[in-house]
Design brief:
Blueprint lengths: L2 H4 E4 L3 H10 L1 E6 L5 H12 L3 E9 L3 E4 L2 E4 L3 E8 L12
Antiparallel strand pairs: 1-2, 2-6, 3-6, 4-5
Length: about 100
């Protein structure tokens, strides 16, 4: 699988920003079929950083109500990535 298809988008929330400042952790939304080894290789290739640890979470889609109908948003996968001390990704800086 291509590295650019594995990493979908960065997740910038209050919690992920606090984790970035405290322990150099970053959060990404990733392809649901990707495993930890593929995610680590993709982040190292795309951003040129050293990844120490990868934690993944399967997030369940939320149910939404549209009048009488009930729909469910899609399930997705979140990856928490810990970088080596001193490594940074520029898009997360200044957020």
């Amino acid at each position: 699988m291509d590295a650019y298809r594995i990493i979908k988008k960065p997740l910038v929330t209050e919690k992920s920003t606090a984790l970035q400042e405290d322990g150099n952790w970053l959060a990404f939304s990733v392809h649901r079929g990707a495993n930890k080894i593929q995610i680590k290789a993709a982040v190292e290739k795309v951003f040129g950083v050293t990844v120490l640890q990868v934690n993944t979470l399967n997030m369940k889609g939320k149910s939404k109500r549209f009048g009488k109908n009930i729909g469910v948003s899609q399930n997705w996968k979140k990856a928490m990535i810990r970088l080596k001390d001193g490594d940074k990704i520029e898009m997360f800086e200044g957020v």
